[in-house]
Design a protein that fits this description.
- This protein is α/β, with parallel strands linked by helices and 430 residues long.
- It contains 13 helices and 20 strands.
- The strands form three sheets. Strands 4, 13, 14, 15, 16, 17, 18, 19 and 20 form a nine-stranded mixed sheet that branches. The chain has an eight-stranded parallel beta barrel with strand order 5-6-7-8-9-10-11-12, surrounded by five helices.
- Helix 7 links the parallel strand 8 and strand 9.
- Helix 3 runs parallel beside helix 10 and helix 6 crosses helix 7.
- The model has no long low-confidence stretch (mean pLDDT 95).
- The protein binds ligand LLP.
- The site of ligand LLP has 22 residues, from helix 11 and helix 12.
């Protein structure tokens, strides 16, 4: 194998970047269940989540928002992790949902999220989706275009009811994050520019079925610094004071997590505290739509080494998980740490390699020049921080069934979604 210089990224202690995962006697555990046991029982690749990790992170944010009492509410961004069992866990913890499609509304109802805790965001709501959400009696529509205000009025009229809306303002702020997940710049497709915002206010006043009660904002995702948030909140407050009857500010999601060491992102407590400090003396109800920060560090994707290949200038480790299972590295160049399930396997040799998946795409690359301990045919690893935008973005590309999902609670685990079979791949074509 070529001797190569490793990259500088460090992941060796899972407890630094993950919630609910640690080594015990050299074996990687999720809570009190060994990941090797899950891999043996269910095969690989498999997503594994820590239930108490999710509970812990949600409570941390809730606790830090406590000074706002019932004026603050969490509306979990369903797109980050859409499994109904995870949603139902979050419901029991008191969270509502931020949805962006009729499909997410369906999932939220199956998870028994109270409709009056569901906000509907998204730039392209269809008439049918709006209609279903009105029938369900959701809390709020976050409106993103003038024609959407008109459409909402028409659909509400058909149902002989009124709808509460918030206008999603685009504050023209750089979230200093990856361009694919930056949403608050004026040329982005999201939200209403200042001119559109005021036109929407005037329009709402004239339309009989529209009740403009809120202003919302979401400037992007994986934001590690609190300053862009504060800049957006300042603008929200200025607007809220100029528009009549505003009771609710939906400040979106976006708080980042640490995919690798050293720690860079503001913690949940810093974020919560900043919200409280900013809004405590204001009269508004504050909705927060976190996704990644609640579930990202609480999940891993367990995958097995299939082959080790040698090139003149690099070694290549081929895993059985690919970009169809975890898209983030290919789409955003994101780094997910890799942790061997056995940290002290006898005879393990550390080899610097590019870690890739089996998909027929060069972008199917998880990590470059990564030192990887290899100990034989059962070399299995956990790709870290895969609890958010992992399974929810997985596809069947290359006709691969999506992996199962497992939820661990202390020394018990349960399959919350089974592995897709070959029949699942072709079912809609038969
Ligand atoms: N609210 C709205 C209106 C959103 O568009 C999003 C995410 C959130 C809340 C939740 O943001 P979070 O707290 O999770 O950052 N697939 C990308 C992330 C896309 C985020 C899209 N919107 C990724 O894997 O990084």
């Amino acid at each position: 194998m070529p001797k190569l210089k490793p990259d500088v990224k460090r992941f060796d202690d899972p407890s630094k970047t993950l919630d609910g995962f640690s080594y015990r006697r050299g074996e990687l555990y999720c809570e009190s269940v060994s990941l090797s046991e899950i891999a043996r029982e269910l095969g690989t690749p498999v997503y594994v989540y820590s239930q108490n990790g999710i509970i812990n992170r949600t409570r941390r944010l809730q606790k830090s928002l406590e000074p706002l009492e019932d004026r603050a509410g969490i509306r979990f961004a369903v797109k980050a992790s859409s499994n109904i069992h995870i949603l139902s866990l979050l419901t029991k913890l008191g969270c509502g949902a931020d949805i962006v499609s009729g499909g997410e509304l369906f999932r939220a109802s199956l998870a028994q999220i109270p409709p009056d805790k569901i906000v509907f965001s998204g730039v392209g709501k269809t008439e049918e989706e709006i209609s279903r959400a009105i029938v369900a009696g959701i809390e709020l529509f976050n409106v993103e275009s003038l024609s959407e205000v008109e459409l909402l009025n028409v659909v509400a009229q058909k149902h002989n009811t009124n709808v509460d809306i918030a206008l999603r303002f685009n504050p023209n702020i750089s979230a200093q994050t990856h361009r694919h997940i930056s949403t608050g710049l004026k040329n982005s497709k999201f939200g209403l520019t200042s001119d559109e915002f005021w036109a929407a206010v005037t329009m709402s006043e004239k339309l009989p079925r529209i009740k403009l009660i809120g202003i919302s904002c979401h400037i992007g995702s994986q934001i590690t610094d609190l300053r862009p948030f504060r800049r957006a909140w300042e603008q929200l407050l200025i607007l809220a004071k100029k528009v009549k009857h505003i009771t609710t500010l939906d400040i979106g999601g976006g708080l980042g997590i640490d995919y690798q060491c050293p720690i860079e992102s503001a913690a949940l407590e810093d974020y919560g505290k900043a919200i409280v400090t900013f809004f405590k003396s204001e009269p508004y109800k504050i909705l927060v739509e976190p996704g990644r920060s609640l579930v990202g560090p609480t999940g891993v994707l367990v995958s097995k080494l299939l082959h080790l290949k040698k090139r003149t200038n690099r070694n290549i480790a081929v895993l059985d998980a690919g970009m169809n299972d975890l898209l983030r590295p290919a789409l955003y160049g994101a780094t997910h740490g890799i942790f061997p399930l056995r940290s002290r396997a006898p005879g393990a040799k550390s080899i610097v390699c590019d870690v890739v998946g089996p998909i027929c795409e060069s972008a199917d690359l998880f990590l470059k020049s990564q030192p990887l301990p290899i100990w034989g045919s059962d070399s299995i690893y956990a790709l870290g921080c895969a609890g958010a935008y992992g399974m929810s973005m997985a596809s069947q590309y290359n006709s691969r069934g999506r992996p199962p999902e497992v939820l661990v609670d202390r020394d018990q685990y349960r399959v919350i979604r089974r592995r897709e079979t070959n029949l699942d791949l072709v079912n809609h074509e038969l």
